[in-house]
TrEMBL record:
GO terms for cellular component: cytoplasm. Residues 23-204 form the tRNA(Ile)-lysidine/2-thiocytidine synthase N-terminal domain. Ligates lysine onto the cytidine present at position 34 of the AUA codon-specific tRNA(Ile) that contains the anticodon CAU, in an ATP-dependent manner. Cytidine is converted to lysidine, thus changing the amino acid specificity of the tRNA from methionine to isoleucine. It holds the Pfam family ATP_bind_3. It catalyses: cytidine(34) in tRNA(Ile2) + L-lysine + ATP = lysidine(34) in tRNA(Ile2) + AMP + diphosphate + H(+). One of its GO terms (molecular function) is ATP binding. Its main location: cytoplasm. This is tRNA(Ile)-lysidine synthase. The N-terminal region contains the highly conserved SGGXDS motif, predicted to be a P-loop motif involved in ATP binding. Its EC number is 6.3.4.19. It is found in: Cytoplasm. It comes from Candidatus Sherwoodlollariibacterium unditelluris. The lineage of its organism: Bacteria, Pseudomonadati, Candidatus Omnitrophota, Candidatus Sherwoodlollariibacterium.
Length: 322
């Protein structure tokens, strides 16, 4: 199956894009996003979709302005509308990592573009090797079933679905496609900077694991993410039976009767309802919340990252922004 057929198969299998929809494509100008853009453009008529390119310049590299110009010209040549954005991430990243701030700003930008043009899908170019690196990185940092799920092929964000048609495509297949079609793209030099954990995993740890421990380690980690994602999705369905709506106030009596797995999922959901995700929430934080529920007196408070707190009051645990 060639790369074009692979993404057609993924779109159908995961119901990523429906006929007649507008799709925002996040295009950095790098190999992966350029590949995704050309593939979706080649499927435009067959799928009956309209495409819109979105590019955010984080101003983190000297070459970033050139990347934005490249993406703009690419859109003009392909006759696909382009929305460009620009933000100085270093100026707003007073606390937290540049990577996290850049990721959050990019997502906010993409959602804004999707809302403006009334698109229901945002397509990103994460692929097989990104999934493998993400799962291994989370294992090293410490994670649970949610983290092991890795990057999902489709994720709901309000009224929009974030979709990843390339998730089952390997990096080498993307590179071969671009080479075969003689397509140019931008090169991000930070991808070779081993100050970043992901790059050390990509260039050092994964090759070592393949050579010395398991030549199929990439397939093993990818399959782990697939299985964990399936199990985690089922747990979310189970959790929904106990709390019919998403809440930032959870009934104490109900919480104490839940299986620990469902309880922890509901705690993470409550946090996510406030900040949009559970980044920086560790197992230590979850254990502290469990102690708040079962052992601490009413009036007790647990402070969490990103300005979130949980208060034990009356019959509920209430999550709020400090």
């Amino acid at each position: 199956m060639n790369i074009r057929e692979k993404i057609k198969s993924a779109i159908k299998k995961y119901n990523l894009i429906n006929k007649g929809e507008r799709v925002v494509i996040g295009v950095s100008g790098g190999a992966d996003s350029v590949c995704l853009l050309y593939l979706l453009s080649s499927l435009k008529k067959e799928l009956g979709i309209n495409l819109h390119i979105a590019h955010l310049d984080h101003m983190l590299r000297k070459e970033s302005a050139k990347d934005a110009k490249f993406v703009k010209k690419l859109g003009e040549r392909m006759k696909i509308p382009v929305t460009l954005g620009k933000i100085n991430v270093k100026k707003i990243a007073k606390r937290g990592s540049l990577e996290e701030v850049a990721r959050n700003e990019r997502l906010a930008f993409l959602l804004k573009v999707a809302d403006k043009i009334k698109a229901k899908r945002i397509a990103l170019a994460h692929h097989f090797d990104d999934q493998v690196e993400t799962v291994l990185m989370r294992i090293l940092r410490g994670t649970g079933l949610s983290g092991l799920s890795g990057i999902l092929p489709k994720r709901k964000m309000g009224k929009v679905d974030i979709v990843r048609p390339l998730l089952e495509v390997r990096r080498k297949d993307i590179e071969n496609f671009l080479k075969r079609k003689r397509l140019s793209f931008c090169i991000d030099k930070s991808n070779t900077d081993e100050a970043y954990l992901r790059n050390r995993i990509r260039h050092n740890l994964l090759p070592l694991l393949e050579k010395e421990y398991n030549k199929n380690i990439r397939e093993v980690l990818f399959n782990l993410a697939q299985n964990a994602g399936c199990d985690y999705d089922y747990l979310r369905v189970c959790a929904g039976r106990f709390f019919k709506t998403n809440k930032t106030k959870l009934n104490l009596s109900k919480l104490t009767k839940l299986h620990p797995s469902i309880l922890r999922l509901k705690l993470r959901d409550a946090i996510s309802n406030l900040q949009g995700d559970t980044h920086r929430i560790t197992f230590k934080h979850i254990r502290e919340l469990e102690d708040l529920i079962f052992n601490r007196p009413r009036g007790s408070i647990v402070d969490l990252p990103k300005g979130i707190s949980a208060l034990k009051k009356g019959k509920v645990i209430a999550f709020y922004l400090r």
